[in-house]
Amino acid sequence: MLLGAVLLALAGWAFTFGVPWGNFWVKIACTIAVITAYSLIFRRPRIQVTLLEVLLGVASAVLLYGIFWLGNALSPHVVPGAGAQVGGIYDLGEGAPRLGIFLLLLLVTGPGEEIFWRGFLQESLIERWGPRRGFAAAAALYGGVHIFSLNIMLIGAAFTAGAFWGLQHLWRRNLTSLIVSHSLWSAFIFAVLPIR
């Protein structure tokens, strides 16, 4: 079950980044739909909607956006060619309508990734290896599948975001704040207020 999930995620990200034809956002949404369905077969995620969890999700999306804004400002001093690589991330969405990207990220990708990566994978790894090692392995896998992008900034960004949401999941053990955070953060950083 766990190995199958990892292999499915690897195949999905390889397809999304490695296949040159098709719209990137449609491919990632299809990948997320498949891995979400897989995870829901084996584990029911803990999603308890409360006002506190929603507000925590909004606050964490704002905090993560700030972390990425700071990282973008500092990265050219640390990573040669960082600006071009960040531009390459945004180039993936060229030609797609912003409203479509916004809705896919808000309603499909954000919720689906949290159901799979934290609700299924991180929880399964915690059961197997304990909280610290389970968290570390889940964050590494989340960053690792982005290797297919061949973009060091995207890999680093995915690891950072995965660690951020993984820690939040260790704290709350409720996907509501994570789904709100991931959905808002990704929709805004890619479709509303891009960081370039």
Describe this structure in words.
With 196 residues, the chain is mainly α. It has one domain. Helix 5 packs antiparallel against helix 6. It is globular, with a radius of gyration of 16 Å. The model has no long low-confidence stretch (mean pLDDT 94).
Q: Can you count the helices?
A: 8
Order of helices and strands: HHHHHHHH
| Overall form | globular
Oligomer: single chain
Judged by helices, strands and strand pairing, the structural class is mainly alpha
- How many domains, in number, for the residues? 1
Q: Major beta sheet, specifics?
A: none
Tell me the strand percentage band.
under 5%
Question: Keywords, please?
Answer:
single chain; 196 residues; mainly alpha; 8 helices
Brief description of this entry?
This protein has helices at 2-18, 24-42, 51-74, 82-91, 98-129, 131-144, 152-172, 175-192. The chain has 196 residues and is mostly helical.
Note the topology.
Layout (H helix, E strand, L loop, with lengths): L1 H17 L5 H19 L8 H24 L7 H10 L6 H32 L1 H14 L7 H21 L2 H18 L4
